[in-house]
């Protein structure tokens, strides 16, 4: 998913587990940038930004943080603070999923890839339909390490279509 030398953007990077893996896979010629609402401890060779991906100026900051102003790989693990009210929590998660797809559209190079952690909900089909307009290859997968019944799933997208 992360070739050596690639430019990787991590949305929802705190406390930094995915950043560490991304950084070791991208290698010393890669670029890794992470953003989170929470302040993430800096890692060697990794740029960490603190900010809210819902803010309109965030795209420009993320663009500026990468050489060439774009990324090869987007990984996203954004989860809202849960209220316990199912409909509200699903709507918040759907908003973050939609924002992730906005970022993919704006900042991924043609041919680029995305891995998004998400939770099964009534919004899943609509999200996959939109992902198919951005990427040629889209699939949903689960991992055996996920807590049983958690509804955790991963949207894996490859070959970002050429922008029209
Ligand atoms: C499950 S954690 C990410 C864990 C991370 N992938 C790791 O490996 O360490 C989800 C993160 O999403 C962040 N988040 C939620 N909403 C956000 C937003 N609007 N903008 C930026 N980060 C957000 C939270 O602050 C939280 O740290």
Based on secondary structure, the structural category is: alpha/beta
Task: Report the count of strand segments.
Answer: 7
- Give the terminus-to-terminus CA distance: 25 Å
As laid out across the biggest beta sheet, the strand order is 3-2-1-4-5-7-6
Any ligands, ions or cofactors bound here, and which?
Answer: S-adenosylmethionine
Shape: globular
Order of helices and strands: EHEEHEHEHEE
Tally of alpha and pi helices? 4
Provide the gyration radius in Å. Answer: 15 Å
What fraction of the residues are assigned to beta strands by DSSP? 25-35%
As residue ranges, the low-confidence spans are none
CATH topology: Rossmann fold
In CATH, the homologous superfamily goes by the name Vaccinia Virus protein VP39
List the topology elements.
Layout: E1 7-11, H1 17-26, E2 31-36, E3 46-50, H2 58-64, E4 71-76, H3 86-107, E5 108-119, H4 124-134, E6 135-141, E7 152-160
Parallel strand pairs: 1-2, 1-4, 2-3, 4-5
Antiparallel strand pairs: 5-7, 6-7
Helix pairs in contact: 3-4
The structure holds S-adenosylmethionine.
Structural commentary:
With 164 residues, the protein is of the alpha/beta class. It has a single domain (7-160), classed as Rossmann fold (3-Layer(aba) Sandwich), CATH 3.40.50. It is built from four helices and seven strands; from the N terminus they run βαββαβαβαββ. It has helices at 17-26, 58-64, 86-107, 124-134, and strands at 7-11, 31-36, 46-50, 71-76, 108-119, 135-141, 152-160. Strands 3-2-1-4-5-7-6 form a seven-stranded mixed sheet, sandwiched between helices. Helix 3 (86-107) links the parallel strand 4 and strand 5. The longest helix is centred in the middle third of the chain and has 22 residues, at 86-107. The mean pLDDT is 93. Bound molecules: S-adenosylmethionine. S-adenosylmethionine is lined by residues 12-18, 35-38, 52-54, 77-80, 96.
